[in-house]
Amino acid sequence: MARMSDQPARWTQATVHPDMWADPDDDPRDTGASPDGELATLLDFLSGYRMTLLMKCEGLDAEQLARRSVPPSTMSLLGLVRHLAEVERDWRGWITGGQPPRLYGERDADFHGAVAEQTVVDAAYADLEREQAATDAALAAHPDLGERLPKDGTSVRELMVHRIEEYARHCGHADLLRECVDGRVGQ
């Protein structure tokens, strides 16, 4: 089994801008249009970071996705996918005022259970897609960014910014994890 300490050669698929993940014509995040309005802008940034996470995982097998970073950390790309599914579910509780049951059990089970099995990988992607859609649907009923939500009176705006921050932070982790797995670099 390969370890994160086995250092692969750095490489990029991009040729136009070698510090990018993909060339502009191949980058699905670049729609060429700037959104109008605050809510549309927030949703655009969230969509971009969600897509970035998936792009960082693309093309890897179950073992590579489950590969842990530097010990004693339990972080892996697969763990990040599972973690963000768990977090999306938790955010829905902010909207409804309830606390949905955890997807993977006790705290940190999202990372601990990220094992190199294709069924676990497939389930993680399905969980993330389902939880994102459910949270998006719950938030769609609250288009006023100033509206206060049941959990601690958090505003819709604050929840949206927090979601973007969470994905952006973990995309930074995904950058480093992916580079350790196969050497691929780029924003």
UniProtKB/TrEMBL annotation:
Transmembrane segments: none annotated. It comes from the Bacteria. InterPro entries: DinB/YfiT-like, MST-like. Residues 1-36 are annotated as: Disordered. This is Putative Mini-circle uncharacterized 19.1 kDa protein. It comes from Streptomyces aurantiacus JA 4570.
